[in-house]
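Request: When convenient, would you put together a sequence paired with its structure tokens?
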Amino acid sequence: MTALTGLEPDVPAGRLHHRPTGPLPVGALTITGLTIAGERLDVAIGTDGRIGSVSAPAGLIVEELAALRS
């Protein structure tokens, strides 16, 4: 999941890191019903690999990091 979406949860730090992977080979994704820290997480990722929207537990910080270069 991390390789495709670029999402990296860090539960102890209360953060969800997102490192865009570039254009997604499968097109836009909407991921619903993930569980992080015992609560529901929903994320929409556009075809460009960037987060379009996120519904996260209160207190969870979503951070977008620089994309990896190949």
Notes: The radius of gyration is 12 Å. The longest strand covers residues 29-36.
